[in-house]
Specification:
There is one protein chain. By secondary structure, the protein is α/β, with parallel strands linked by helices. It has a single domain, classed as TIM Barrel (Alpha-Beta Barrel). Helix content is 36%, strand content 17%. Helix 4 packs across helix 5. Bound molecules: NADP nicotinamide-adenine-dinucleotide phosphate. One of its GO terms (molecular function) is ketosteroid monooxygenase activity. It holds the Pfam family Aldo_ket_red.
C-alpha cells in the first residue's frame, strides 16, 4: 500500500538583532554561513520591520512521516500528500526541511527538492535539509551507512544537519521498531557518546555540515559535552516545546552551551490518537491563548509560534494545507508585548504530549528527568 504516516512541519522566523547574536554564537561555521545566505536572499524588509531591528529571515519547514507496516500505531496518509506538501512549502518560501529516516518520506522530500531545483525555484545551497539517525542504527558501524542511505533517499551529496533522533538505542535489524513476542520494544546498550563519534566522522567526511541531537535531557547533553575527546558540540537539541511545555530550564541550559533549541509540537502536535492522549488539552483552543490572539488580531497558531521565536527557540510547524503554511510565515510580521509574553509564560504546565513510551524502561529514557 502506497501510504505512510506523515508529519509535515514548517516554521519561519525572523530574528531580532539580539536573538540573531544568540543564534550565531553557537559556533558552527556552516550554520552561520547558512544564516548569512538566508539574510542575503530575504525579501526587503518593511519599514516597521526595519524599525524593529530585524536582521534576517530564516525559513523553516519540516516534514516527517512514519511507515505503515512498521508500526500499526502510525496514522496512514498517502505518500503523495507529503510530496505535494513539500512542493507547496518550497513554493511558499520555506527553505529548511526537517525530516528523518524513521518518517520514511526522505524519498518524497528528495523528489520535491530535485524538481524545484530543476524548475529553477531554488538551488541546493538555498535549502537547509535536516534528517535524523534512527535508534536502530546507533551501533558505530551502522551510522555512516545509515546516513548514506538517507542521502541516497534524499538525492543529496550532503545533509545540512544530521540529528540523533533519541538518546536511546534500539536493536538493529530489519525492523525499525523491533519488538518481542509481547510487543515490548527491543532496546540496545550502545552508548550515545560512541554513536556521536561516528557522527563527527561523517561531518569530517563531508557527508553532513552540522550534527545535533533530539530528545536529550540536560544531563545527557552534559555527558555528551563532557565526553573525553569531543570534537564537535551538538548544534541543536530538537525537543517538544510549546506553551504547555515551555522548556524554560532546558532552554536556559542550551543557551548557556550555545546549543539551539528546536521545538517540535509547537502547535500542540497533530494529536494522532496512537501517540497522543485524546483527553489532553487542545493547545490552539486554549482560552488565554485565544484572548492574546484576538488582542493581537492574529491566529492562535501564529501566537504560539511567535511566543517561541521571541524566546530564541526555532519552531517547527507541521501542516499539509497551503493556507496554513502561508499563514505561519506571518510569524515575522508582528511582535508580542512583554505583557503578552508574561501572560503566555503563565500557560506552562510542563505537560508533554509525546512521551515516547516505546523507549520507556531504558536507562537513557530522557523524560524522567525534570528537564
Ligand atoms: N524529533 C522528534 O522526536 C520529533 C517528534 C515529533 C515531531 N517532530 C518534528 O516536528 C514537526 C512538527 O511537530 P508535530 O507533528 O508535533 O506538529 P505541530 O507542528 O505541533 O502541529 C501540527 C498541527 O497544527 C496544525 N496547524 C498548522 N498550522 C496551523 C495554523 N496556521 N492554524 C491552525 N492549525 C495549524 C496542523 O494542521 P493540518 O494537519 O490540518 O494542516 C497540524 O494538525 C514534525 O513534522 C517533525 O518534523 C520531531
Amino acid at each position: 500500500m502506497a501510504a505512510s504516516c506523515h508529519y509535515w512541519a514548517m516554521a519561519l522566523f525572523k530574528i531580532q538583532s539580539s536573538e540573531y547574536v544568540n543564534q550565531i554564537s553557537f559556533g558552527q561555521a556552516e550554520y552561520v554561513a547558512y544564516l548569512q545566505r538566508a539574510e542575503g536572499r530575504m525579501s526587503p524588509l518593511s519599514e516597521p520591520e526595519q524599525a524593529a531591528g530585524f536582521l534576517q529571515v530564516m525559513r523553516h519547514c519540516s516534514c516527517c512521516l512514519c511507515s505503515p507496516g512498521v508500526s500499526a500505531s502510525y496514522k496512514l496518509v498517502p505518500k503523495s500528500k507529503s510530496l505535494e506538501a513539500a512542493h507547496l512549502a518550497i513554493d511558499a518560501g520555506y527553505r529548511h526541511i526537517d525530516t528523518a529516516y524513521a518518517y520514511q518520506i526522505e524519498e518524497e522530500i528528495g523528489q520535491a527538492i530535485q524538481s524545484k531545483i530543476k524548475a529553477g525555484v531554488v538551488k541546493r545551497e538555498d535549502m537547509f535539509i535536516t534528517t535524523k539517525l534512527w535508534c536502530t542504527c546507533f551501533r558505530p558501524e551502522l551510522v555512516k551507512p545509515a546516513l548514506e542511505k538517507s542521502l541516497k533517499n534524499l538525492q543529496l551529496d550532503y545533509a545540512d544537519l544530521y540529528i540523533m533522533h533519541y538518546p536511546v538505542p534500539m536493536k538493529s535489524g530489519d525492523n525499525d521498531f523491533p519488538v518481542d513476542e509481547k510487543g515490548k520494544s527491543l532496546l540496545d546498550t550502545v552508548d550515545f557518546c560512541d554513536t556521536w563519534e561516528m557522527l563527527e566522522k561523517c561531518k569530517d567526511a563531508g557527508l553532513v555540515k552540522s550534527i545535533g541531537v533530539s530528545n536529550f535531557n540536560h544531563k545527557q547533553l552534559e555527558r555528551l559535552l563532557n565526553k573525553p575527546g569531543l570534537k564537535y558540540k551538538p548544534v541543536c537539541n530538537q525537543v517538544e516545546c510549546h506553551l504547555y511545555l515551555n522548556q524554560s530550564k532546558l532552554l536556559d541550559y542550551c543557551k548557556s552551551k550555545d546549543i539551539v533549541l528546536v521545538a517540535y509540537g509547537a502547535l500542540g502536535t497533530q494529536r494522532y490518537k496512537e501517540w497522543v492522549d485524546q483527553n489532553s488539552p487542545v493547545l490552539l483552543n486554549d482560552p488565554v491563548l485565544c484572548d492574546v490572539a484576538k488582542k493581537n488580531k492574529r491566529s492562535p497558531a501564529l501566537i504560539a509560534l511567535r511566543y517561541l521565536v521571541q524566546r530564541g527557540v526555532v519552531p517547527l510547524a507541521q501542516s499539509f494545507k497551503e493556507n496554513e503554511m502561508r499563514e505561519n510565515l506571518q510569524v515575522f510580521d508582528f511582535q508580542l508585548s512583554p505583557e503578552d509574553m508574561k501572560t503566555l509564560d503563565g500557560l506552562n504546565k510542563n505537560f508533554r504530549y509525546l512521551s515516547a513510551e516505546f523507549l520507556a524502561g531504558h536507562p537513557e529514557y530522557p523524560f524522567s528527568e525534570e528537564y
